[in-house]
Amino acid sequence: MKKLFAVLIVVGAILFVRKHYYGKQEPAPPTKAEQTAEAIGRVARKQIDSGGDAKSAVASLLGSLTKGRVADASPEQKAKERVEAFMGYWQKGGVSLNDSEQAAACMWARGVVLITDKDDIQDAVNGFDKWRRERDLYHAFDSYAIGPPQRRSDAGRGDYTAFDVIIDGTKYEIGVPDTSNPMFWSGAS
Length: 189
What we know:
Blueprint: H1 2-22, H2 32-49, H3 54-70, H4 75-93, H5 99-110, H6 118-133, E1 144-146, E2 150-154, E3 158-167, E4 170-177, E5 184-185
Antiparallel strand pairs: 1-3, 2-3, 3-4, 4-5
Helix pairs in contact: 2-3, 4-5, 5-6
């Protein structure tokens, strides 16, 4: 009986050691999103420690990250990404003055999700409100659909991409300039 008890203790000790010391896996390598979040945090911390403006540093970093992704895209692809993001933010934000509506105003005005200057963002929000009121669209909406891109050019606006956008069953035509200027109503809609 003593031999059986000794064998059980040895087996138990081996299992204990194996479970607690040999069964641990290495942590998974960080994902691209985690690496990006860490980089943003480091930039913000560095700016805060040096007495700088963390918001502008982070906005600059985010801008450089997104510019790298779409830098090689065609004007039509850039415009499509801008109008899709814009419409998504606009639908989500409605007229609530929440982050989504402000992001929609920034996308409408400059093609970016965040404008850090308070005067520039105020101009963007006011311009976006005025633009929506021109077509009686200063209200929340339930659905939208975006048509294919149509390249256009005119002397007053330069090169742009136009999209037929259906909002709650009504068709509108939105022009997206190739530059970081505000979107506009194009056509007779």
